[in-house]
Design goal:
Layout lengths: L3 E2 L2 E3 L2 E3 L6 E5 L6 E6 L3 H17 L6 H17 L1 H12 L3 H21 L6 E6 L2 E9 L2 E5 L5 H14 L3 E5 L5 H9 L12 E3 L4 H10 L5 E5 L2 H12 L4 E5 L5 E4 L5 H13 L11 E5 L3 H14 L18 H15 L3 E4 L18 E4 L6 H4 L6 E7 L2 H8 L4 E2 L1 E5 L3 H10 L4 E4 L11 E2 L1 E2 L2 E2 L1 E2 L1 H6 L2 E9 L3
Helix pairs in contact: 1-7, 2-4, 3-4, 3-6, 4-5, 7-8, 9-10
């Protein structure tokens, strides 16, 4: 396996960190070294921001939507041509099974293609306020946008956040998650083959969030910060960004309920419920980590779910037969196992609840798919984001009780309801306090449609038209002309 070396991208030039220091990235499956990336400092961030600012002010970009559309279209085509290579590097750094990595790359390309088309549809409005006076509301780019991406879906969330920022005419400075910097920069390397892409429009600085992320959030020449990450990180970014009053778009944690009524199509609901929690080893912000199940279904549905969970095959990410990968790190594994121990003390363990170590899995960070039944509502495994393959099952008798359980956490990122009774399903869906409410499906994350959080799950929306409009300012142009 090749160990790939990466550099920062600043003003169109790949360059080492000013300190010369690097960080090693290891595969969570077996600890093998896969990438080496720069460990940047404030000086590197400052140069990247300066390049982005100069490009915004001087390059033919901010007010040329046709060029932006052409560049993004070319980038999407380059990603499609490099699909298998990108998927392999993504799998090796995240540990997710190769088939899931392929799916993620496809998803990211979908975002780039969507926003390439949307770049030419950034319309304003006008109104004749009175005779001889015309008001025009114009949409303009914010300026320099700092994009901070997480490690769980580093390529999809890169393009979900960066593509609309670029489509709207902004320039960007990317700070990728340390654990997945290499596969993220692999996507940016494709820009070298797109000659029409102006230099300095896209920049990337690799490093610890406590250094590079903090400098970006506080930098006076960064006009907006877009973060997908945990609640605590979002709170710190928000505090720091307030000092320079920059715009902030935050998608944070989730504790999403998946409500299944007894009259649902259970043959359809079962594989969705399984995938909703155990895909990517449960490391997904919108993961269906709380199964809210009608009480009469427990004896039928839960044993089947247990059986399917136990069929998941753990293994190396590059094995085509693997259906359960590791979690990202030792630290994350220890945190999850701590939650599991607390769950054993307050609820019934249905399956799992331990680290997987057989057949060489002890070299990675594998946790058995874990299911708990009816923990108390105030339990940490119910209220806190675990970010691992741990499902809580909570039972209910009435739709009002189901709704109260579903809305009973500080989070509100995603949710779902399953029922053949569309009146009942819509009654619940409209009352769920979450940015997405899926009916008879789960995790339908589409480039054309917005997602985002209520409550402590964040602020603003990603995807769809709103996902681009948030990267704009509205300017009022008032024209007084001859009467």
């Amino acid at each position: 396996m090749d160990v790939l070396q990466y550099k920062n991208l600043i003003d169109g030039v790949w360059q080492a960190a000013s300190s010369g220091q690097t960080v090693d990235i290891h595969c969570p499956c077996d600890g093998a070294l896969v990438s080496r990336v720069p460990s940047s400092q404030a000086e590197d961030v400052n140069r990247a921001v300066a390049a982005a600012k100069q490009s915004f002010e001087e390059e033919d970009w901010a007010f040329n939507p046709r060029l932006r559309a052409q560049c993004l279209s070319a980038w999407a085509a380059a990603m499609r041509a490099s699909h298998e290579h990108l998927a392999a590097r993504l799998a090796l750094e995240t540990g997710k099974p190769i088939n899931e990595a392929r799916f993620e790359v496809n998803s990211s390309i979908g975002y780039v293609e969507y926003y390439a088309a949307a770049a030419r549809t950034l319309y304003g409005t006008s109104t004749a306020v009175e005779s001889g006076l015309l008001s025009v509301l114009a949409r303009e780019p914010v300026g320099v946008v700092a994009v901070i991406t997480p490690w769980n879906y580093p390529v999809t969330l890169l393009m979900r956040d960066m593509a609309p920022a670029l489509a709207a005419g902004n320039t960007c400075v990317l700070k990728p998650a340390t654990q997945t910097t290499g596969c993220t920069l692999e996507v940016l390397k494709l820009l070298d083959g797109i000659s029409i892409f102006p230099k300095g429009v896209v920049n990337a600085v690799s490093g610890r969030g406590s250094i590079t992320g903090a400098v970006l959030a506080d930098h006076p020449d960064v006009d907006m910060i877009s973060l997908t990450g945990g609640l605590e990180t979002g709170q710190e970014i928000m505090k720091t960004a307030a000092r320079t009053m920059k715009k902030a778009s935050l998608e944070l944690g989730g504790k999403s309920p998946n409500i299944i009524f007894a009259d649902a199509d259970l043959e359809k609901a079962l594989p969705f419920a399984l995938k909703a929690i155990f895909m990517n080893a449960g490391q997904l912000c919108t993961v269906g980590s709380r199964l809210v199940l009608e009480e009469s279904l427990v004896d039928y549905f839960l044993p089947r779910l247990k059986e399917e969970a136990e069929k998941l095959r753990p293994g190396h990410c590059m094995d085509e037969q693997t259906s359960l990968g590791p979690v990202i790190s030792q630290e994350q594994m220890d945190k999850i196992l701590g939650y599991i121990d607390s769950g054993k003390a307050c609820s019934t363990l249905v399956t799992g609840g331990y680290r997987l170590t057989e057949n060489g899995l002890d070299r990675g960070f594998y946790i058995a798919p874990t299911i708990f039944l009816n923990p108390p509502m105030d339990a940490s495994i119910v209220q806190e984001e675990i970010f691992g393959p741990v499902l809580t099952v909570q039972t209910f008798k009435t739709k009002e009780e189901a709704l109260a359980i579903a809305n009973g956490t500080p989070y509100g990122l995603a949710s779902a309801v399953w029922s053949r009774d569309i009146d009942k399903a819509m009654w619940v869906a409209r009352r769920l306090r979450a940015g997405s409410a899926w009916v008879n499906c789960y995790n339908k994350l589409l480039p054309e449609c917005e997602t985002g959080g209520y409550k402590q799950s964040g602020m603003d929306r990603a995807g769809g038209a709103e996902g681009m409009l948030k990267y704009t300012e509205v300017k009022h142009l008032c024209i007084d002309f001859m009467r």
